[in-house]
Design goal:
This protein has helices at about 1-15, 55-65, 80-90, 100-105, 110-125, 135-145, 165-180, 195-215, 230-235, 250-255, 275-280, 295-300, 310-320, 330-335, 340-350; strands at about 20-25, 35-40, 70-75, 90-95, 130, 150-155, 185-190, 220-225, 240-245, 260-265, 285-290, 305. It is α/β, with parallel strands linked by helices and about 350 residues long. Helix 2 (about 55-65) packs across helix 3 (about 80-90).
C-alpha cells in the first residue's frame, strides 16, 4: 500500500545520513532493508496496539542505540511513544499520513470521533508534527490547537528526481502493448489495493459507470486495472476494452506506458500516492477533486485534470479530451515530491535544538 511504501522509502533516504532504527512487525522482509536497521519488535497480532510489554522492549532498543528522537508513523501506538518521551526524555515526532479521524468519518465509521480525540491528544503531546499535505497541517493547527511553529509538511516522496525521457516512455509502452497484446488505442490505467474500501468503491464506479459511458460513445481505448484484492465477480466478468491484471510486481512500467491514469476515488484522506507516482512518470492524471487532495495543481501544470466528485459524465469526457495530452509535468513537481528533498528538510528540522 502507498503508506507502507512511503515509510520504507522515507527511512531508506533518512538512514543514508542518520543512524536509523525501524521497529517493525515480524512479517517484514529483512532482504529488502537498505540504509537503516530493521528490528522486528512487534508481533503480527493486532493486540500489539495495546500490549504494554512493548514499551519495555522499545526502551531497551532506545538505550542500546542511544536514540534521541522517536518518529511515530500513524497514531495507533502513540500512547507507547508518549510513555517513552516522558520516561526517557527522547523527542517525539508525530509523522501523520492522514487526519485519521476524518478519514474514518468519510468512510462512515461510527467510532471516528473517539479516534479523532485520541489523535488530537497525541499531536499535542508531540515535540514536532509532520503532515502529509498543507491542508492536513492547516486542519490540525486549527482543530487540534497546535502551535504552527512546531508543525511542517513532509509530502509523499518519490524516488524520481526528474522527468523520464521520451524514449523511456515509448519503450515502456511497446513492452506493455506486446506483453498484454493491446492495440495502439489510448492506454488508461487504474491501480490500488482493493482491500481498502475507498479503492474498491472507485473500482466499482469505474467498471459500472465510467467504462459504459466510454463504450456507449464508441470511444476506442484500453483500460488496464491492476492491484491486490479485486473481487472475484469483477475479475471473472467481461468488460469491453478492459483488462484486469490483479497484482503486478512493478507498477512503474505501467505508469510510464499509460497515456492517462484514472483516479475516481472520493473517500479516505491524505495524498493518493498512486497519482503522485503516475505524475512522476509524466502521465496525465484525471482525478476527482477529493482524490487530488494534497497535490497542488500549480505543481502539475496541465498533466493533472480535476473534475468534481461524482460527476462521472465530466470524468469520462475529460478522458476523451486528454488522452493525447503532450504537455509535461513541470520541474517544480519534482522539487516538491522528490524524497531526497523531503528528507533533507526533515533532517534539518530534527537537528534544531529548539524542538
Amino acid at each position: 500500500m502507498g503508506g507502507q511504501k512511503y515509510i520504507e522509502v522515507f527511512y531508506r533516504y533518512l538512514g543514508a545520513d542518520v543512524n536509523t532504527i525501524v521497529a517493525s512487525t515480524q512479517n517484514n522482509e529483512q532482504a529488502y532493508v537498505r540504509d537503516y536497521t530493521l528490528e522486528k519488535v512487534f508481533d503480527n497480532n493486532r493486540t500489539r496496539y495495546i500490549n504494554p510489554i512493548y514499551i519495555f522492549k522499545l526502551r531497551k532498543l532506545i538505550r542500546q542505540h542511544n536514540i534521541t528522537h522517536v518518529i511515530l508513523e500513524h497514531p495507533y501506538m502513540g500512547w507507547m511513544a508518549v510513555a517513552l518521551q516522558k520516561t526517557l526524555g527522547v523527542k517525539l515526532i508525530a509523522h501523520s499520513h492522514n487526519i485519521e479521524g476524518e478519514r474514518f468519518r468519510s468512510m462512515h465509521k461510527k467510532w471516528w470521533k473517539l479516534l479523532w480525540h485520541y489523535e488530537k491528544w497525541l499531536h499535542k503531546q508531540a515535540d514536532y508534527n509532520f503532515f502529509i499535505t498543507e491542508l492536513d497541517l492547516q486542519y490540525a493547527v486549527k482543530h487540534f490547537d497546535l502551535n504552527l511553529a512546531k508543525c511542517s509538511t513532509a509530502f509523499y516522496g518519490i524516488e524520481r528526481s526528474k522527468l523520464p525521457g521520451n524514449e523511456q516512455k515509448i519503450t515502456a509502452r511497446e513492452y506493455i502493448n506486446q506483453k498484454l497484446k493491446l492495440s495502439t488505442a489510448p492506454l488508461l490505467l487504474f491501480n490500488g489495493n482493493f482491500s481498502y474500501q475507498p479503492n474498491l468503491n472507485a473500482l466499482l464506479v469505474l467498471v459500472n459507470t465510467i467504462v459504459p459511458l466510454l463504450n456507449n460513445d464508441n470511444y476506442n481505448f484500453n483500460l488496464v486495472i491492476c492491484g491486490k484484492g479485486i473481487p472475484e465477480d469483477i475479475r471473472t466478468k467481461r468488460f469491453d476494452n478492459v483488462l484486469i491484471k490483479d497484482f503486478v510486481p512493478d507498477i512503474s512500467i505501467y505508469n510510464l506506458a499509460a497515456d492517462v491514469f484514472l483516479n475516481p476515488v472520493i473517500e479516505g484522506g491524505g495524498v493518493k500516492t498512486k497519482i503522485v507516482e503516475a505524475l512522476a512518470a509524466d502521465t496525465t492524471v484525471i482525478s476527482t477533486r477529493s482524490g487530488a487532495n494534497g497535490v497542488d495543481k500549480e505543481w502539475c501544470g496541465d498533466k493533472l485534470i480535476i473534475v468534481e466528485d461524482t460527476d462521472w459524465t465530466a470524468f469520462y469526457r475529460a478522458i476523451k479530451a486528454n488522452a493525447n495530452n503532450t504537455k509535461s509535468v513541470p520541474e517544480v513537481f519534482f522539487q516538491q515530491f522528490f524524497m531526497g528533498n523531503i528528507v533533507k528538510k526533515v533532517k534539518a528540522i530534527l537537528e534544531t535544538r529548539t524542538l
